[in-house]
């Protein structure tokens, strides 16, 4: 058990396209935990898509909603939480998640990320002329935040199943009461 923390959940942080959703679903299945996604929570609570919130209200409004759902997560247990890629940039979010969750960061190279997201259209930050340059820029800016996780896992050369196994293993190690 980490000092002063009550690790009853798992939070997955990391850039878009690093596998948070697919890994998170599998981890939840294996541990018989519930699965939650912060983007989906925001969409359910507002009745609007992430794209629409960004376009109509702007990124700061989306970030405020993100912080609100993170605060709600503090009352959860036995939950795997997949977080939006920009969520850990707000230090309050990471501090809050760390009180109740083992925070695992999924890392990928910009090339691999591009390969995974290039045919998807639901990510407003990549709706620009040069999405590849944007990935490089954002990833570099966010790296210090992603590195504040308890566990870092590179997902470039591992299958979803292997990454999920690693997450489950780390969680069991941390919560085995040693
Ligand atoms: C964002 C990532 C998205 C979503 C929003 C902003 C980001 O989530 O929260 O489009 O800032 O990187 P995913 O990481 O699940 O794609």
Distance between the termini: 7 Å
Global outline:
globular
Small molecules in complex: shikimate-3-phosphate
Series of secondary-structure elements, N-terminal to C-terminal: EHEHHHEHEHHEH
Strand proportion: 5-15%
Structural class: alpha/beta
The value of Rg in angstroms is 16 Å
Helical residues, percent = 40-55%
Count of discrete alpha- or pi-helical segments spanning 4 or more residues? 8
The overall pLDDT average reads: 95
How many extended strands?
5
Describe the strand arrangement of the main beta sheet, using strand numbers: 2-3-1-4-5
Low-confidence stretches: none
Largest sheet: 5 strands, parallel
Present the secondary structure layout.
Elements: E1 9-14, H1 20-31, E2 34-37, H2 38-46, H3 50-57, H4 59-73, E3 79-82, H5 91-100, E4 101-107, H6 110-117, H7 131-146, E5 151-154, H8 160-175
Parallel strand pairs: 1-3, 1-4, 2-3, 4-5
Helix pairs in contact: 1-8, 2-4, 3-4, 4-5, 6-7
The structure holds shikimate-3-phosphate (S3P).
The site of shikimate-3-phosphate has 10 residues, from loops.
């Amino acid at each position: 058990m980490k000092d002063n923390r009550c690790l009853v959940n798992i939070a997955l942080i990391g850039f878009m396209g690093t596998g948070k959703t697919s890994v998170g679903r599998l981890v939840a299945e294996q541990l018989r935990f519930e699965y939650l996604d912060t983007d989906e929570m925001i969409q359910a609570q507002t009745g609007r898509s992430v794209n629409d919130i960004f376009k109509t209200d702007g990124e700061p409004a989306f970030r405020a909603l993100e912080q609100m759902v993170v605060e709600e997560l503090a009352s959860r247990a036995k939950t795997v939480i997949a977080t939006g890629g920009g969520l850990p940039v707000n230090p309050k979010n990471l501090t809050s998640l760390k009180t109740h969750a083992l925070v695992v960061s999924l890392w990928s190279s910009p090339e691999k990320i591009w390969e995974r997201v290039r045919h998807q259209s639901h990510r407003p930050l990549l709706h620009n002329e040069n999405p590849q340059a944007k990935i490089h820029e954002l990833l570099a800016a966010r790296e210090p935040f992603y590195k504040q996780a308890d566990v870092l896992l590179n997902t470039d050369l591992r299958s979803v199943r292997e990454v999920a196994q690693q997450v489950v293993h780390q969680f069991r190690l941390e919560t085995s009461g040693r």
